């Protein structure tokens, strides 16, 4: 009886002899770490507003304004060029997004990249649109606080 138990216990703890040229067998307690992924398509979120004006790169004004917060100078400069293109093609967008446009462009004036600063000044130098912007701002503001600054 003791011989049977001892033999059974030894069978449990037998070392597997490895053969030359054969792959090592997997352990009994090996964990399978494979995983699979699937993409989720949300068609409602992917729909673009068909009547919103876009640039030649298919970016609307909200996309371009959000790109002004990017860390890369070239992305900011591309967004400013896209805004300039969008405002020359669709001047009505200026009236709708005037406050966000001015605040975002003003924040980019202090950028460390000189090309970004130059593009920001070019954006606001759109002559007829800049005059319209200043005119709208002066209409919105009361005339007394702006009188010392206007000539």
UniProtKB/TrEMBL annotation:
Organism: Hucho hucho
InterPro entries the record matches: ARM-like, ARM-type_fold
Record's protein name: Pre-rRNA-processing protein Ipi1 N-terminal domain-containing protein
Phylogenetic lineage: Eukaryota, Metazoa, Chordata, Craniata, Vertebrata
UniProt GO cellular component terms: MLL1 complex
Entry-linked PANTHER family: REGULATOR OF MICROTUBULE DYNAMICS PROTEIN (PTHR16056), TESTIS-EXPRESSED PROTEIN 10 (PTHR16056:SF2)
């Amino acid at each position: 009886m003791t011989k049977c138990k001892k033999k059974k216990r030894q069978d449990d703890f037998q070392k597997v002899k490895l053969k030359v040229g054969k792959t090592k067998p997997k352990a009994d307690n090996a964990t399978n770490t494979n995983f699979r992924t699937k993409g989720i398509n949300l068609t409602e979120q992917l729909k673009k507003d068909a009547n919103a004006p876009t640039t030649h790169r298919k970016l609307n004004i909200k996309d371009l304004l959000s790109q002004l917060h990017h860390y890369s100078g070239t992305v900011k400069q591309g967004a400013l060029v896209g805004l300039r293109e969008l405002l020359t093609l669709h001047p009505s967008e200026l009236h709708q997004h005037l406050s966000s446009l001015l605040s975002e462009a003003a924040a980019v004036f202090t950028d460390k990249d000189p090309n970004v600063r130059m593009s920001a000044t070019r954006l606001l130098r759109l002559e007829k649109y800049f005059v319209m912007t200043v005119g709208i701002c002066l209409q919105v503001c009361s005339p007394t606080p702006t009188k010392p600054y206007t000539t």
